[in-house]
Amino acid sequence: MSDFIERSDRPSAPRATRSDSRVPPHNLDAEASLLGAMLLNDEPVGLAIEQQLVAEDFYKPAHGHVFAAIRSLSSAAEAIDAVTVADELRRNNLLDELGGLNFLLELQNATPSISSAGRYIRIVRDTSILRRLIRGASDIADIGYSAPADIKIAIDKAEQIVFDIGDEQISDSLQKLHDLTGSVAQILEDRFDAKAEITGVRTGYAKLDKLLSGLQPGTLNIVGARPAVGKSAFALGMAVSGARATNRPVLFFSLEMSATELTQRILSAEAQVDSDRMRTGRLQDADWTKITNAINRLEIPLYIDDTAQITVMQIRQKLRRVNVSDSPPAMVVID
Asked: Domain range for residue 207?
């Protein structure tokens, strides 16, 4: 029964603040109705666990304790009803404090509809998120009032607070085949009307584009080969081509080479100037003309990040920033 004792690491929102007397968002009726549905049927229990609902999502502490008891019984594969939950609460010295068995029976009897449990969960989760946003805003204000020496670190902390709240959300990825076929039919119709051989993002490599019809949205493409055979150059060429063809942001994350080295490679390929001459500086007059023209042609939305130990979370944050400041990225390359 350890699940009942352990609480989520997610910080709970305060009930009120000294500077603001407003009551945080909550819906006690939805909380009570959800708990009552769980006491009557196992399906709402499984649905709440699948949606990653935790005790801290409940505004009323008593409701949080009841949910924790239900979740503990579910983890132990034990029956869940008013009597078994009451026993679990009694073992943790909470039953009398909550009002005894009658409190659970009131929850059970006050449930309007078990079939609406999914809606109750969304209400409880949404109001919990709003309370965490309020707390996050307070934390961000504290960062600002502290007058930090490093503004960049302060902004990063503030962004992390908001993103941590957003990252807790999960989406229902289950879809009926009938709904999917309707979406696919629309895609096929659009492709038919476009009359284009390349339906995805062009890579710049004709044979590959013909084989894949371009890089399709939502796909993961892995380039594999032995060391030092040109994988990075190949990926870099795709990034440049994708940004140029779509005029949408393409993000290139390099965990090995610096942004300067990558830019030099791009310039060398675009200007058709020998990379050794660029590396040594032994450029000819004609090379300078080619490089200048190449620079003008490379006014494309290609973003390069050379953070060596970048994390998935950081990549997601950078994608969000580009999505807001520019437009949705057409391609992301990680080398």
From this structure: 197-334
